[in-house]
Amino acid sequence: MRTLLPLLVTAALAAPAALAADTDTPLTTLPYTPGLDVAAMDRGADACTDFYQYACGGWIKENPIPPDQSQWDVYRKLAQDNQRFLWGILDQLARATKGRDATQQKIGDYFAACMDESAVEKRGIEPLQPYLDRVDAMKSKGELAAVLAQLHLATGDAGLLFGFGSGQDFSDATRVIAFASAGGLGLPDRDYYVKDDARSKEMREKYVAHVARMFTLLGDTADRVRAEADTVMRIETALARASLTRVERRDPYKLFHKMDRKQLAALTPAFDWNAYLKGVGLAKLNDFNVTQPEFFAEVQKELEGESLADLKTYLRWHLARGAAPFLSEALVNENFDFYSHTLRGVPQLRPRWKRCVALVDGQLGEALGKEFVRRAFSPQLKAKALRMTRQIEHAMREDIESLAWMGPETKRQALAKMHTLVNKIGYPDKWRDYSKVVVKRGDFFGNVERAQRFESRRDLAKIARPLDRGEWQMSPPTVNAYYDAQLNDINFPAGVLQPPLYDPKMDDAPNYGNTGGTIGHELTHGFDDEGRKFDAKGNLRDWWTEADAKAFDEKASCIVDQYAGYVIVDDIRINSKLTQGEDIADLGGLILAWAAWQAEKAATPDKARDGLSPEQRFFVGYAQWACENDRPENQRVKAVTDPHSPARYRVNGLVVNMPQFAAAFACKAGTPMTSEKRCRVW
Ligand SMILES: [Zn+2]
Hints:
Blueprint: H1 51-62, E1 71-73, H2 74-95, H3 102-115, H4 117-123, H5 129-136, H6 144-155, E2 162-169, E3 172-182, H7 191-194, H8 198-217, H9 222-241, E4 258-259, H10 261-267, H11 273-279, E5 288-290, H12 293-305, H13 308-323, H14 329-344, H15 352-363, H16 365-376, H17 379-402, H18 408-420, E6 422-426, H19 444-460, E7 482-484, E8 489-493, H20 508-525, H21 546-564, E9 567-569, E10 572-573, H22 576-603, H23 614-623, E11 628-630, H24 632-641, H25 647-655, H26 659-664
Parallel strand pairs: 3-5, 6-8
Antiparallel strand pairs: 1-11, 2-3, 4-5, 7-8, 9-10
Bound molecules: zinc ion.
Zinc ion is lined by residues 1-2, 521, 525, 582, 585.
């Protein structure tokens, strides 16, 4: 993925309206920002000394982080424009209740119910009470599995002990099986529980204090809440210690452990899988991928070692954490205060309209996306994006054929993978059918729950059925893109194919640098440290000769070493073993975009504009997708959790490896944006 936006439902909400001045009005048309914006540059800076500053200095100066955001960048700014446009659509569908079709009724009434803050306030925590009662009513640990099945269906929340869903079998990508995965934590990563530095310790203390305050809001007495929060921390710490690190999780072999029902039961005998599977409607299931067996062994220990009362406390916390954004102001604020303010340094809550638009997008994304596409994504735009994608793919095939470090046998397999690769552009061919989701005006919490139940059942219903290759993991308005290793497809939602990223009014050079770079990035993911382990059919299989695999690792380690030298914030350096897939994709993507542009340029030459040569415009166009401002608190979270390097290095870290850049800006050897030792994988 190019960037990560907080799209998860559990992360979607914060609290009451903080007026963000001129952006707090709905839009009926999308605003235009040019693809290469000279005003966003800092032409006083030297391109050969700090190219990121040269290309983005103006943007950085003119775009301070809004008070309701953890960071601010070109992607997020465009995402906010999209949100305001979606707000306009939803506002109209919420008001005009006549003449709507069945799908428009759902998104209109969902939005209306979400925006009805006084109705939400009146209900307080009452909507959560039936869940808390279900947990309280357990008389023995033996009942936990059946209760957890119901909670997972209703919330889809892997924070409740573990995650359970569907996925493609790593050894046979045509089959969909059940995945039982590690989860159970309230902090953003297992590292927060195990690291011993002062900041990690301080964050743990603040977390425990937050958990205690949440128990107070549930009505627990002051003498109990501290002990309850300590119980949560004890259980989560044990689960965290048994969880793989993010770097370990980059290796798909470490996440693939096929088990049948007997083996699963033997791993966690204290958990009644029969009751759980019956509860989620899959009583006959026998094929599982247990992604982290050590984690489930720890679940077994916790179920044995912790008392029923303490396990209830743990579940109550996670229910409150997950539901807080959908409840009254006190819970919304407490949730915001820890997860956004303390963790990421965000001063203010997002206004309610933003939270509600994000929720419609998260829960009924293709219904809203259909409206977006109809208004903002033309067939001509789709055709242009497809044409560029094919050019980039052609460049990748030529690159593979010409590689000196890869032998003919591995090349044959790599080209086979290129042959089966599928492009998905804009939106799905077949829209998701939401007819089973009941949406009621005036029942916000109920809508959230029913939409989640629909999604849980939709996901589980895929198990043991024919694979749907047309499915998307992102909604059409999303400003992002992704590669899926098992479907072997690259996906570009309509939201990412708009100005200032793809600008039909611009010359080719910046468009190839920017959107061409994105397409090349996603394509290169098929051949990064992770993607290269899957074959043309999407199966986890080693198709590399030993010598070629070794050559790949050497090339990749050049990039790992390069990025390990970059500082994120304070004295924290990039964990370049975590970011290597993205760093490889960035560099490969820009090299492919350059090659595709050369072919295009031969037919339709570009001219100099704004005092920049076509070659300079290619690189400035590339860099201007990345311009960003970030908060130190947020940078610290990302240093642990984000597989992407900070924007500055996603620009400067690439150009030092490209002789085309040094030529375009006439950079002399020895200047900071040149390198004696150039890295290149693809
Ligand atoms: Zn990526």
